[in-house]
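Appendix B, example 12.
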Amino acid sequence: MTIAGTPSASGVAIVRRPTRVRLAWLLALLAVLALLVAASIAIGSRDVSWDEIVAALGGSVDGLGPAAVAKRISRTVLALLVGVALGLAGGVMQGVTRNPLADPGILGVNMGASLAVVTGIAWFGLWTYTGFIWSAIAGAAVTAVFVYVVGSLGRGGATPLKLALAGAATSAAAASFISAVVLPRGDIAGGVRSWQIGGVGGASFDAIAQVAPFLVVGTVICLLAARPLNSLALGDDLAAGLGERVLLTRAFASLGAVLLCGAATAVAGPIAFVGLIVPHACRLLVGVDHRWLLPFSAVAGAVLVTASDVLGRVIARPDEIDVGIITAIVGAPFLIAIVRHQKVREL
């Protein structure tokens, strides 16, 4: 059931969903997420018994079974955190830029964070999670500012199409720089290439503990920006007329997205398309109100990353396919569908 609302500044009718419908979808998503968490803990290269799962949940890592379960638990927790971060960051970026193609991968933010981490490893001997996180956040911030400035040049300012093109060009350039940095360093090439694919197979509770504060701060900032992002959706002039400080709102919301992207990339590598797919799917469920859209994007992002991780373990058992490959296989056709639907000329 939907309720038609008033037209937005862009002339597109805003569709409102009743609260009970939104809550029903939220409960359904949480139920799916709970099933995926259980599957993520149970499924792996070897079967584990219920007793081994209970022992691992109780803190025991004695024996091969409980140790394997403990590893899967840390992997599952990291998948949840990364999914929340990327889904939420994608929703915020689309709100800040009013760009249906905005995504940490497409706008080059993930690749900028990757370049900063790889440069730190190759040139400065960076090997701690704290160093990875700060480097990734700095790289993500610099890239986000650069893409926005380049996309703002010329007539019309920062249009969605110009931002997408600037992001794609920046991402390609960053990927080339990464190759240039890594190729002369055979001692780090294998590890960097594996990390660049994007995955949660190397999860550990130490990494989770170090990245969690950054993710919490980024999540809080993004959720606090939900109401102001609703004003920005009406257009800059109307938002300013409603008392919104447009530039400050964009900077504040972007800070949260950059923290989430940088921290997630530091521990899991550049996983693409999550921030693109999730907000679009969630708009179909709950509408365009960011007060609902952002929390839904966080939960749906966790669902997508966890499901991709489980699927990668199932279809290649006893080996596995990294999350970044699965999301790319799903996300590339999704991107093509969005571009065809939006008719690039109108972006």
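Residues 38 and 158 are 44 Å apart (CA to CA). The chain has a mean pLDDT of 85.
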